[in-house]
Amino acid sequence: MNSKTQPDLHPDAESLNAFVEQALAERERGEILTHLAGCGRCREVVFLAQEAATEMESAVDSPDLRLPARQRSWLRNWWVVWAPAGALAAVVSLAYVVHLRRVEMASELAKVTPPAAMRDEGISARPPAPPMGMQAAPPLAAAAPAKPAPRSMKAPIESVASRQLPHTAATMTAEEASELPHTRQDEAAASPGTSGAGNPAPSAAAEYKPGVAAAAREVEQEQAAADSQIRSMAAKATAQARPNEPATRAAAGGMLKSAAPAALPAVSSTPPAAFEAGSLHGTGRVFAVYKASPTKLPSGLPAVSTASMQHSTLAVDRLGTVYLSEDSGSDWESVANQWSGRAVSVRVQPAVDANSGALQTGPPVFVLVNDQGQVWVSTGGRIWKAK
Amino acid sequence: MGISPAQSVEGSEGKCVPDRLGAIDGTLLDELWNECEGASWGLERGEFKEILLDVGTAQNYGLAQAADASRQQQAAFFRGLRLADLVLARACAAGNERAWERFVATYRQQLERAAIAITGSNSLGRDLADQLYAELYGLTTRDGARRCPLQSYRGRGSLIGWLRTTLAQRHVDHYRGSRREQPLKEFDTPAPDAEPEKPASELTILKKAVEGAVSRCAAEDRFLLAAYYLDERTLLEIAPVLHVHEATVSRKLKRVCQEVRKAILKNLQDAGMSKRAAEEALGTDPRDLDLSLKKLLQYSRAETFQEKAGR
Q1: CB burial of residue A44 (10 Å; 0-12, 13-18, 19+)
Q2: By CA distance, what is A16's nearest residue in B?
C-alpha cells in the first residue's frame, strides 16, 4: 500500500510519531492502533522510526556520556588488579635487595676477619646473635636457595649448600631429625677456625683449614665415591621414611636423583668439611650425605659424622664406632670405646673452661655426642673425657 | 498541566462550552507564548495564536470529528503540544534564517543518523537525509509556491520524532515502489494442488470461524498478532511501540492466542461441529484454507486518515 497511490488511507507522520511517543489521547491511539493492525506499511514505518530512535539514543549516550564511565571503570578494575601485584613486586624486590646485601656483607666479613677475632666474635655472639662474621654465613646461604655470591671464592660452596637444602628437608629421616636440635645448638658454639660437623661457616673453613693439600686429596676421593654413596644414602633414607609420607618418599628419590650430579662438581672444587658445615644449617639429610660421602671407614659402613682438626679426623659410622685418622682420612684406626651408649656424632669445638664456660685461648677440642645426648671431650681424639 | 497528553480530553472536567475559532483565553495564550520562545524567531503573538488555532482545528483538539471542544479541552490540547518545536518548525517553514540556523545545528546531524539507522547504509542514509533536508528547506514547489513539509508539523510529538517518522515513511515508500521494478524470480513450476482431505463445507465453516474469532479481537491484539506473526517482529521490537515490557508483550501474545483458539472452537461448535471434530478441525493444514490473515486483520479499518505529510 503506497501513500502516494492511496494517500487518504494512512495516518501522517505526525500521528504515527505521536502514537509512538504516547502523545495521543485514547481515542486517537485506538484509531492508530486499529490502522496499524491491518497496515503493514505503517507498522514498518513505526518500527523503523522506533529502531532509529533507539540507535540514536545509544549513539548519543555512548560516545559522550558513557566513555568517561568506561574509563573510570577500566581504571578502577585495573587498579584492583595492579595494586596487590605492585605491592607484591615491591616486597619481593625489597627482600631480594636486602638478602643480596646481607650475603655480600657476610662474605666480605668472612674474608677479612682474622681467625682469632672471629673466634672471639663467634663465641661472644654465640646464642642469639648470628649476623656477625662467620656465623651469619650459613643461615644466609640457607635462606637463598638459588642465589650465588659471585664476589667470594665461597660462592660455589654456598650455592651448592643452598641447592641441597630443599632436598635435605625432603629426605631427612625421623631418626636423623631427632638428632637435629642438639646438633644445631652445638654448632653455634663451634670454632670458626676449624672445620667439621660443628662448623657453621663453610667459607671460613675454606680459608682457615690448615691442611689444604690434604683437603684436596679428600676432594679427589670424594669425587670417586660421591655418586654411588649419594644414591645409596638416598635409597636408604627413602626406605627409612615413614610409611604415612608417600609424597615425601617420592620427592626424596626424585630430588636426590637430580641433586647429586649438580652437587658433585661443587664438592670437588671445595674442601669437604667446609661444604658439610655450610649445609649443616639445613635440615640434616644432605648434611649427612655429604658428610659421609668422602669418608671410607674400615667397617665398610658410611660415616654419619666426621670432624677434622688440623691433621686429625674423627668419623662415626652408623653402628657408633668411632675412627680416627691422622693423615686426613687415608688411614683409619678404631678408637676405644670410652663413652656410654652409641656415638652418633662428633664435632670440633673451641676449648671452653669446664667450670666457668668461658672461652679459652687453647686449641679446640673434639666433642662426641652419644645417642642419649651425653657429651665427651677429647683433645686428640684418642682419649675421651665426659663433659 | 491539568491533563496529560496521553489522557483523553473528552473526559476532562469543565463545561463543554463550544468555543469559536480565535477565542483562546488571553491568560492561556500568554502562558503558551512565554513557553514557546516564539519571539526568538521573530514570531509575533498574533501569528502564534493563528498557528495554535490552525493546529487545534485541524485535529479538532484531539476529539472526534463531530465533537465540540470545551475551553478546558482546548487548553489541555494546547498544553500537550510541543510548542517550542512547533514554533521553530513554523519559523523554518516561513524562511527565518535564525530559525534555520538553530534547526541545522540541532537536527541536521540527528537527521543523518536517523536516516542511516533506518536504511542500514551510510550512503543510502545520507542520500535519504539530504533529500528530506532539501524538501524541508523548501526547494520543491507546488503550483508555483514554495512548499515546506515542516508546515505539516503540528507539535503533537517531538520534532525529531516527526523527522524520523517522515524519513521512515520515505524509505518504506521508496523501497516498496522500487521493489516492484525488480525482476521476478524464476519459480519452479508449482505442483498441482492436492485434493483437500477435508470436504469443502468443513473448510468453509473453519474459515468463517477463524474470521469471526479474529474480527472480535481488540485492535491492540490484532496489532500484536500482525506484528509478531506476519511481520515477524521480536518482542523486544514490539515492546517500545506499545510502551510495555517485552515480558508483557509475551504474556499478551499468549493470552491472545488462547482466546483466538477458544473463539474458533466455539464458532465451530456453534456451526454444528462436535467438540472433538472442532479440535480436529484446528489441525487442518492452513494452506487448505482460502484465508488471508493480512486481509482479515485489515477488515475493521473503520477510520481513514488523511495523509498530510507535505509532498
Answers
A1: buried
A2: B165
